[in-house]
Design goal:
With about 350 residues, this protein is of the alpha/beta class. The protein is about 40% helix and about 10% strand. It has 15 helices and 7 strands. The structure holds S-adenosylmethionine.
Length: about 350
Protein backbone atom coordinates (compact mmCIF):
# COMPACT_ATOMS: atom_id res chain seq x y z
CA UNK A 1 0.00 0.00 0.00
CA UNK A 2 1.36 3.42 -0.81
CA UNK A 3 2.76 5.06 2.25
CA UNK A 4 1.56 8.26 3.70
CA UNK A 5 1.01 8.70 7.34
CA UNK A 6 2.15 7.21 10.55
CA UNK A 7 -0.89 8.66 12.26
CA UNK A 8 -4.07 10.32 11.17
CA UNK A 9 -2.44 13.77 11.28
CA UNK A 10 -1.05 14.48 7.85
CA UNK A 11 2.66 15.07 7.36
CA UNK A 12 3.45 16.14 3.79
CA UNK A 13 6.22 13.95 2.41
CA UNK A 14 9.56 15.52 1.43
CA UNK A 15 8.12 18.96 2.17
CA UNK A 16 11.30 21.07 2.16
CA UNK A 17 12.74 19.15 -0.78
CA UNK A 18 9.50 19.71 -2.72
CA UNK A 19 9.47 23.47 -2.04
CA UNK A 20 13.10 23.72 -3.13
CA UNK A 21 12.52 21.65 -6.26
CA UNK A 22 9.50 23.78 -7.19
CA UNK A 23 11.57 26.93 -6.48
CA UNK A 24 8.49 28.46 -4.85
CA UNK A 25 8.60 32.23 -4.89
CA UNK A 26 6.34 35.17 -4.01
CA UNK A 27 3.81 35.92 -6.74
CA UNK A 28 4.26 32.48 -8.30
CA UNK A 29 1.53 30.38 -9.80
CA UNK A 30 1.34 26.65 -9.11
CA UNK A 31 -0.72 23.58 -9.88
CA UNK A 32 -0.99 20.84 -7.25
CA UNK A 33 -2.37 17.89 -9.23
CA UNK A 34 -2.92 15.80 -6.08
CA UNK A 35 -4.02 18.43 -3.57
CA UNK A 36 -5.66 16.01 -1.10
CA UNK A 37 -6.00 17.69 2.32
CA UNK A 38 -3.71 20.52 1.19
CA UNK A 39 -0.45 19.71 3.03
CA UNK A 40 1.94 20.66 0.24
CA UNK A 41 -0.55 23.21 -1.09
CA UNK A 42 -0.53 25.17 2.17
CA UNK A 43 3.26 25.37 2.14
CA UNK A 44 3.19 26.53 -1.50
CA UNK A 45 0.65 29.24 -0.68
CA UNK A 46 2.59 30.40 2.38
CA UNK A 47 5.80 30.68 0.41
CA UNK A 48 4.30 32.22 -2.72
CA UNK A 49 2.58 34.90 -0.69
CA UNK A 50 2.03 37.75 -1.44
CA UNK A 51 0.40 37.28 -4.80
CA UNK A 52 0.77 33.52 -5.18
CA UNK A 53 -1.97 31.45 -6.81
CA UNK A 54 -2.72 27.76 -6.67
CA UNK A 55 -4.89 25.45 -8.75
CA UNK A 56 -5.54 22.30 -6.72
CA UNK A 57 -6.85 19.15 -8.39
CA UNK A 58 -7.99 15.90 -6.81
CA UNK A 59 -10.09 13.01 -8.10
CA UNK A 60 -11.52 12.43 -4.64
CA UNK A 61 -14.37 14.78 -3.69
CA UNK A 62 -13.61 14.24 0.03
CA UNK A 63 -10.06 15.48 -0.53
CA UNK A 64 -11.34 18.66 -2.17
CA UNK A 65 -13.57 19.32 0.86
CA UNK A 66 -10.64 18.81 3.22
CA UNK A 67 -8.40 21.08 1.12
CA UNK A 68 -11.04 23.80 1.05
CA UNK A 69 -11.19 23.80 4.85
CA UNK A 70 -7.42 23.71 5.31
CA UNK A 71 -6.69 26.45 2.77
CA UNK A 72 -9.51 28.73 3.92
CA UNK A 73 -7.11 31.57 4.77
CA UNK A 74 -6.03 31.63 1.10
CA UNK A 75 -9.49 31.25 -0.44
CA UNK A 76 -8.95 34.20 -2.79
CA UNK A 77 -5.74 32.68 -4.12
CA UNK A 78 -6.98 29.15 -4.78
CA UNK A 79 -9.03 27.28 -7.27
CA UNK A 80 -9.98 23.71 -6.25
CA UNK A 81 -11.23 21.27 -8.85
CA UNK A 82 -12.61 17.75 -8.31
CA UNK A 83 -11.17 16.21 -11.45
CA UNK A 84 -8.77 13.61 -12.69
CA UNK A 85 -5.31 15.01 -13.41
CA UNK A 86 -5.39 13.09 -16.71
CA UNK A 87 -7.57 16.02 -17.84
CA UNK A 88 -4.92 18.61 -16.94
CA UNK A 89 -4.94 20.29 -20.33
CA UNK A 90 -8.72 20.79 -20.35
CA UNK A 91 -8.66 22.04 -16.74
CA UNK A 92 -5.90 24.60 -17.38
CA UNK A 93 -7.69 25.90 -20.44
CA UNK A 94 -11.12 25.93 -18.82
CA UNK A 95 -9.89 27.95 -15.84
CA UNK A 96 -7.41 29.97 -17.89
CA UNK A 97 -4.65 28.95 -15.52
CA UNK A 98 -1.35 28.99 -17.42
CA UNK A 99 1.53 29.37 -17.83
CA UNK A 100 2.62 28.37 -14.35
CA UNK A 101 5.83 28.40 -12.32
CA UNK A 102 5.42 24.86 -11.07
CA UNK A 103 3.39 21.66 -11.24
CA UNK A 104 3.40 19.10 -8.44
CA UNK A 105 2.27 15.48 -8.32
CA UNK A 106 2.39 13.67 -4.97
CA UNK A 107 1.07 10.29 -6.05
CA UNK A 108 -0.43 7.49 -4.01
CA UNK A 109 -3.06 7.46 -1.33
CA UNK A 110 -4.25 10.26 0.93
CA UNK A 111 -4.35 9.97 4.70
CA UNK A 112 -8.14 9.91 4.56
CA UNK A 113 -8.12 7.05 2.06
CA UNK A 114 -5.49 5.07 3.91
CA UNK A 115 -6.85 5.50 7.39
CA UNK A 116 -10.08 3.71 6.68
CA UNK A 117 -12.79 6.09 5.56
CA UNK A 118 -14.83 3.13 4.39
CA UNK A 119 -13.51 3.33 0.83
CA UNK A 120 -11.78 -0.05 0.91
CA UNK A 121 -8.15 0.97 0.29
CA UNK A 122 -6.76 -0.52 3.47
CA UNK A 123 -6.56 -4.14 4.61
CA UNK A 124 -6.41 -2.90 8.19
CA UNK A 125 -10.04 -1.76 8.30
CA UNK A 126 -13.07 -3.73 7.25
CA UNK A 127 -14.92 -1.99 4.42
CA UNK A 128 -16.55 -2.79 1.10
CA UNK A 129 -13.95 -3.64 -1.55
CA UNK A 130 -14.19 -0.38 -3.46
CA UNK A 131 -10.88 1.54 -3.91
CA UNK A 132 -12.19 4.19 -6.31
CA UNK A 133 -10.59 7.62 -5.85
CA UNK A 134 -13.77 9.07 -7.24
CA UNK A 135 -16.97 7.23 -6.22
CA UNK A 136 -18.56 8.17 -9.55
CA UNK A 137 -16.16 5.88 -11.46
CA UNK A 138 -17.80 2.67 -12.74
CA UNK A 139 -15.53 -0.19 -11.72
CA UNK A 140 -14.77 -1.12 -8.11
CA UNK A 141 -12.13 -3.52 -6.79
CA UNK A 142 -14.96 -5.97 -5.98
CA UNK A 143 -16.00 -5.98 -9.65
CA UNK A 144 -12.48 -6.94 -10.69
CA UNK A 145 -11.96 -9.51 -7.94
CA UNK A 146 -15.29 -11.23 -8.58
CA UNK A 147 -15.56 -11.01 -12.38
CA UNK A 148 -12.04 -11.55 -13.73
CA UNK A 149 -10.74 -14.93 -14.83
CA UNK A 150 -8.00 -16.63 -12.85
CA UNK A 151 -5.47 -15.81 -15.57
CA UNK A 152 -6.51 -12.15 -15.63
CA UNK A 153 -6.26 -11.84 -11.85
CA UNK A 154 -2.89 -13.54 -11.78
CA UNK A 155 -1.64 -11.24 -14.55
CA UNK A 156 -2.78 -8.03 -12.92
CA UNK A 157 -1.50 -8.97 -9.46
CA UNK A 158 1.89 -9.86 -10.94
CA UNK A 159 2.09 -6.82 -13.24
CA UNK A 160 0.77 -4.08 -10.96
CA UNK A 161 1.66 -5.55 -7.58
CA UNK A 162 4.99 -7.05 -8.66
CA UNK A 163 3.82 -10.08 -6.63
CA UNK A 164 5.68 -13.34 -7.32
CA UNK A 165 2.88 -15.49 -5.77
CA UNK A 166 0.24 -14.06 -8.10
CA UNK A 167 -0.94 -17.41 -9.51
CA UNK A 168 -1.52 -18.93 -6.11
CA UNK A 169 -3.31 -15.81 -4.89
CA UNK A 170 -5.57 -15.85 -7.97
CA UNK A 171 -6.41 -19.52 -7.35
CA UNK A 172 -7.38 -18.82 -3.73
CA UNK A 173 -9.44 -15.80 -4.75
CA UNK A 174 -11.40 -17.91 -7.21
CA UNK A 175 -12.15 -20.50 -4.52
CA UNK A 176 -13.34 -17.83 -2.08
CA UNK A 177 -15.52 -15.79 -4.42
CA UNK A 178 -17.63 -13.78 -3.98
CA UNK A 179 -15.27 -11.53 -1.97
CA UNK A 180 -16.86 -8.25 -1.06
CA UNK A 181 -14.85 -6.86 1.85
CA UNK A 182 -11.26 -5.77 2.44
CA UNK A 183 -10.73 -8.14 5.36
CA UNK A 184 -12.08 -11.10 3.41
CA UNK A 185 -9.61 -10.39 0.60
CA UNK A 186 -6.70 -9.82 3.02
CA UNK A 187 -7.51 -13.12 4.77
CA UNK A 188 -7.69 -14.94 1.41
CA UNK A 189 -4.28 -13.63 0.33
CA UNK A 190 -2.81 -14.51 3.71
CA UNK A 191 -4.07 -18.07 3.30
CA UNK A 192 -2.51 -18.25 -0.15
CA UNK A 193 0.96 -16.94 0.71
CA UNK A 194 1.25 -17.46 4.46
CA UNK A 195 1.37 -15.09 7.38
CA UNK A 196 3.22 -11.81 7.48
CA UNK A 197 6.99 -11.95 7.70
CA UNK A 198 8.47 -8.68 8.96
CA UNK A 199 6.53 -5.46 8.74
CA UNK A 200 4.94 -5.92 5.33
CA UNK A 201 1.46 -7.48 5.28
CA UNK A 202 1.17 -10.29 2.68
CA UNK A 203 -1.82 -8.54 1.04
CA UNK A 204 0.11 -5.29 0.43
CA UNK A 205 1.02 -6.04 -3.18
CA UNK A 206 -2.40 -7.43 -4.12
CA UNK A 207 -4.11 -4.31 -2.73
CA UNK A 208 -1.65 -2.10 -4.60
CA UNK A 209 -2.35 -3.94 -7.86
CA UNK A 210 -6.13 -3.62 -7.51
CA UNK A 211 -5.95 0.06 -6.62
CA UNK A 212 -3.74 0.78 -9.65
CA UNK A 213 -6.14 -1.05 -11.97
CA UNK A 214 -9.36 0.40 -10.51
CA UNK A 215 -8.04 3.96 -10.86
CA UNK A 216 -6.02 3.41 -14.07
CA UNK A 217 -3.20 5.04 -12.16
CA UNK A 218 -0.35 4.36 -14.56
CA UNK A 219 -2.26 5.40 -17.71
CA UNK A 220 -3.46 8.58 -15.99
CA UNK A 221 0.06 9.46 -14.87
CA UNK A 222 1.48 9.00 -18.38
CA UNK A 223 -1.33 11.04 -19.92
CA UNK A 224 -0.94 13.86 -17.41
CA UNK A 225 2.85 14.09 -17.62
CA UNK A 226 2.65 14.60 -21.39
CA UNK A 227 0.28 17.51 -20.82
CA UNK A 228 2.40 19.33 -18.24
CA UNK A 229 5.07 20.77 -20.49
CA UNK A 230 2.96 23.17 -22.50
CA UNK A 231 1.58 24.76 -19.34
CA UNK A 232 4.92 25.40 -17.69
CA UNK A 233 6.35 28.87 -18.24
CA UNK A 234 10.03 29.25 -19.13
CA UNK A 235 12.05 27.66 -16.29
CA UNK A 236 8.83 26.41 -14.71
CA UNK A 237 9.35 23.32 -12.57
CA UNK A 238 7.77 19.88 -12.75
CA UNK A 239 8.05 17.90 -9.50
CA UNK A 240 6.79 14.34 -8.98
CA UNK A 241 6.84 12.26 -5.80
CA UNK A 242 6.16 8.58 -6.43
CA UNK A 243 5.85 5.61 -4.08
CA UNK A 244 6.53 2.49 -6.06
CA UNK A 245 8.80 1.43 -8.88
CA UNK A 246 6.04 1.29 -11.53
CA UNK A 247 5.25 4.98 -11.04
CA UNK A 248 8.86 6.02 -10.67
CA UNK A 249 9.82 4.25 -13.90
CA UNK A 250 7.21 6.25 -15.83
CA UNK A 251 8.35 9.55 -14.32
CA UNK A 252 12.03 8.80 -14.87
CA UNK A 253 11.52 7.71 -18.49
CA UNK A 254 9.37 10.76 -19.26
CA UNK A 255 11.82 13.27 -17.80
CA UNK A 256 14.83 11.62 -19.40
CA UNK A 257 13.18 11.51 -22.83
CA UNK A 258 12.17 15.15 -22.65
CA UNK A 259 15.64 16.14 -21.45
CA UNK A 260 17.27 14.24 -24.31
CA UNK A 261 15.04 15.60 -27.09
CA UNK A 262 16.22 13.61 -30.10
CA UNK A 263 14.69 10.14 -30.36
CA UNK A 264 16.61 8.96 -33.44
CA UNK A 265 18.34 5.56 -33.12
CA UNK A 266 21.85 5.93 -31.68
CA UNK A 267 23.41 4.74 -34.95
CA UNK A 268 21.57 7.33 -37.13
CA UNK A 269 24.21 9.53 -38.83
CA UNK A 270 22.11 12.70 -38.47
CA UNK A 271 19.05 13.63 -36.48
CA UNK A 272 15.86 13.25 -38.51
CA UNK A 273 13.30 13.53 -35.70
CA UNK A 274 14.10 17.19 -35.07
CA UNK A 275 13.02 16.95 -31.44
CA UNK A 276 14.68 19.37 -29.03
CA UNK A 277 14.99 18.95 -25.27
CA UNK A 278 12.02 20.54 -23.52
CA UNK A 279 13.10 19.77 -19.96
CA UNK A 280 16.32 19.99 -17.99
CA UNK A 281 16.75 17.56 -15.10
CA UNK A 282 17.13 19.29 -11.75
CA UNK A 283 18.26 16.23 -9.82
CA UNK A 284 20.09 13.53 -11.73
CA UNK A 285 19.70 11.20 -8.78
CA UNK A 286 16.36 10.65 -7.20
CA UNK A 287 15.68 12.48 -3.90
CA UNK A 288 14.54 10.32 -0.96
CA UNK A 289 13.56 11.16 2.64
CA UNK A 290 16.26 11.99 5.17
CA UNK A 291 16.87 9.86 8.26
CA UNK A 292 15.09 12.52 10.31
CA UNK A 293 11.99 12.37 8.09
CA UNK A 294 11.97 8.57 8.17
CA UNK A 295 12.03 8.67 11.97
CA UNK A 296 9.16 11.17 12.05
CA UNK A 297 7.12 9.53 9.30
CA UNK A 298 8.25 5.93 8.62
CA UNK A 299 5.67 5.52 5.89
CA UNK A 300 7.51 8.05 3.75
CA UNK A 301 10.18 5.39 3.24
CA UNK A 302 9.36 4.55 -0.36
CA UNK A 303 8.99 8.18 -1.54
CA UNK A 304 11.08 9.24 -4.52
CA UNK A 305 11.19 12.80 -5.81
CA UNK A 306 12.19 13.78 -9.33
CA UNK A 307 12.23 17.32 -10.69
CA UNK A 308 12.82 18.99 -14.04
CA UNK A 309 12.76 22.51 -15.44
CA UNK A 310 11.04 23.73 -18.61
CA UNK A 311 13.26 24.78 -21.48
CA UNK A 312 11.82 26.82 -24.33
CA UNK A 313 13.27 26.39 -27.79
CA UNK A 314 13.22 29.22 -30.27
CA UNK A 315 11.42 27.08 -32.81
CA UNK A 316 8.90 25.10 -30.84
CA UNK A 317 5.92 27.27 -31.70
CA UNK A 318 5.70 28.55 -28.16
CA UNK A 319 8.58 30.90 -28.91
CA UNK A 320 7.10 33.62 -31.06
CA UNK A 321 9.16 36.72 -31.82
CA UNK A 322 7.77 38.39 -28.75
CA UNK A 323 8.66 35.45 -26.57
CA UNK A 324 12.15 35.47 -28.05
CA UNK A 325 12.71 39.05 -26.93
CA UNK A 326 11.09 38.15 -23.65
CA UNK A 327 13.57 35.32 -23.24
CA UNK A 328 16.45 37.77 -23.52
CA UNK A 329 15.05 39.62 -20.51
CA UNK A 330 14.51 36.35 -18.76
CA UNK A 331 18.28 35.95 -18.57
CA UNK A 332 18.03 38.00 -15.40
CA UNK A 333 15.25 35.75 -14.16
CA UNK A 334 13.14 38.89 -14.01
CA UNK A 335 10.40 36.80 -15.65
CA UNK A 336 9.58 35.45 -12.28
CA UNK A 337 8.04 38.82 -11.46
CA UNK A 338 4.26 38.57 -11.90
CA UNK A 339 4.07 41.47 -14.32
CA UNK A 340 6.40 39.74 -16.74
CA UNK A 341 4.59 36.49 -16.24
CA UNK A 342 1.38 38.23 -17.24
CA UNK A 343 3.12 39.42 -20.38
CA UNK A 344 4.23 35.91 -21.22
CA UNK A 345 0.69 34.69 -20.66
CA UNK A 346 -0.65 37.23 -23.16
CA UNK A 347 1.89 36.16 -25.73
CA UNK A 348 1.12 32.54 -25.07
CA UNK A 349 -2.60 33.07 -25.50
CA UNK A 350 -2.13 35.01 -28.69
CA UNK A 351 0.13 32.37 -30.22
C1 LIG B 1 -0.62 11.31 -1.41
S1 LIG B 1 -2.09 12.18 -1.60
C2 LIG B 1 -1.50 13.85 -1.77
C3 LIG B 1 -1.14 14.51 -0.46
C4 LIG B 1 -0.92 16.00 -0.58
N1 LIG B 1 0.27 16.27 -1.34
C5 LIG B 1 -0.81 16.65 0.76
O1 LIG B 1 0.29 17.02 1.17
O2 LIG B 1 -1.83 16.80 1.44
C6 LIG B 1 -2.51 11.72 -3.23
C7 LIG B 1 -3.83 12.29 -3.71
O3 LIG B 1 -3.83 12.16 -5.12
C8 LIG B 1 -5.15 11.91 -5.53
N2 LIG B 1 -5.08 11.33 -6.87
C9 LIG B 1 -4.53 10.15 -7.21
N3 LIG B 1 -4.65 9.94 -8.54
C10 LIG B 1 -5.29 11.03 -9.04
C11 LIG B 1 -5.69 11.42 -10.35
N4 LIG B 1 -5.47 10.65 -11.41
N5 LIG B 1 -6.29 12.62 -10.50
C12 LIG B 1 -6.50 13.42 -9.44
N6 LIG B 1 -6.16 13.09 -8.17
C13 LIG B 1 -5.55 11.92 -7.97
C14 LIG B 1 -5.71 11.01 -4.46
O4 LIG B 1 -7.13 11.07 -4.43
C15 LIG B 1 -5.07 11.57 -3.19
O5 LIG B 1 -5.92 12.49 -2.56
Amino acid sequence: MSPKLATSSHIPVLLEETMKALAVQPGGRYIDCTVDGGGHALAILERSSPGGQLLGIDADPEAIKAARAKLEAYRKAILLVNENFANLQAICIKYDFFPVHGILFDLGLSSLQLNGNGRGFSFQHDAPLDMRFNPSQDTTAADIVNNSSEAELSHLIRTYGEESHSRRIAQYILRERPIRSTLHLAWTVERAVGRRRGRIHPATKTFQALRIVVNRELENLETALKQTIEFLGFEGRLVVISYHSLEDRIVKRFMQQEARGCICPPDAPVCVCGRKPRLKLINRRVITPSEAELRLNPRSRSAKLRAAERLVNQDDGYATAEVTSFLAKAETRAWRKPVLLKKLEMVFLAA
